[in-house]
Design goal:
This protein has 59 residues and is mostly helical. The chain is built from 2 helices and no strands. The longest helix is centred in the middle third of the chain and has 38 residues.
Length: 59
């Protein structure tokens, strides 16, 4: 008996898991971008987006 079915199913499961992980990361990235947009619309800015002052660089 050939192991073709086992090998094909192994590749199919690996492909399905990979696609699920890619989808999860993509959807999570969209959610984080939406959250950042909401925070910026509310006036909350990231510290990295603030201009650096000479006094801040000495600290």
């Amino acid at each position: 008996m050939s192991h073709t079915f086992y090998i094909a199913m192994s590749y199919a499961v690996a492909a399905l898991v990979t696609l699920c992980l890619i989808g999860w990361v993509w959807l999570d990235g969209r959610a984080r971008q939406r959250e950042l947009a909401e925070l910026e619309a509310a006036g909350i800015r990231r510290r990295s987006a603030q201009p650096k002052t000479p006094e801040a660089s000495k600290a």
